[in-house]
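This protein record is not my work; I was only asked to verify it. Would you go through it and say whether the fold makes sense for this chain? Here is the record exactly as it was handed to me.
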Amino acid sequence: MSARIPPRRWRWAVGLAALTVPLPLAPSAQAQTSYLCAADLNGDGDAADPGEIATCVTTASGSPLCPLQKVDCTADAQGQYSCPLGSQYQCLKPASGWTPACSPNLCTASSTAIATDPVVDDPGAANDGAVDADGNCYGSIEIFSGRALRCRPAGLLTTFSNCCANKGSIVNDGVDSGITSISTKIAVAKGVLTGVKAAYTAFKAGATASQAASAAGKAIIVGIDPTSLAIDLAINLVLEFLLSGCDQQDMEAGILRGSAMCHEVGTWCSSKILGICIQKSVGNCCFNTKLGRIIQEQGRPQLKSFNAIGWGTPKDPYCRGFTPEEFQALDFSKMDLSEYYAEFTRKSQSDIQIDIKDKVDAYMQSAVQ
């Protein structure tokens, strides 16, 4: 989320407190340049928790000193100070003139402190490609294709908000709603993306979080069957995301993850300070429907073409859909669709199987025409 920032200053909100760091001045004014340091204080493998990043303090010599795990140096009989943590750590006298101290953690200039992986914008498989005079598709056909989306758990750059948290199902696969085609549900997923973009754009342009969330709701429902969408929950969730440190992709992934439309590939460190992780990200393959995600998860192990790469890596998920040949080779009798059945309250399992077949057939018809 953005905020109006005074010149030459920037701020991270940490709980109720804030870490304010002056931006660096010209190289000649090194003494006034701010520095940051980070440490894994709780031993969980990263420095992504509150209190594990700090502004370095200025010392009498002008060198920065990290306050994390800082200890006082000890003097020998000749009055020479040494660091009890090891001779490799320098004793530095605070500008206030008190006992010299040392820290095992290095400082780095705040202007270059954080190294963050770029956010990959995966558009997924292209829709409605070129066709010949008979309506046959020139390009490749992907069935139940997905998109790579990342969300970020609680960490420094999300102001310790969990942008991956399951907030509840917002989009469903049309339980008893009269939905007759999977393509209708694709429109729902597209509507979520459109709504999230509308909200984030409005918020960045200066709209209040409430106004932006309302814009999201209006954008989401355009051309969509409202029975398949918990619109009030969607608006509340967008509002919650906007008031946290979550960005546009966090919001979209959060909505689709909560609606059971994403397969989680894994976690990686996406932001570091001096090689120490301060923010993790979770890579996902998100699909247009919950059914699409289930069939992908249970269909891929049946196909040799996915054996080598699987779901890819957390940082680079492999989310392509099935080719028509791969889809025809799937044995649906070996798939457990009970998770999908659980959404239906009044249909028998045999009716649901017929319904699934009809939807898949309709999807295939629309894909090849």
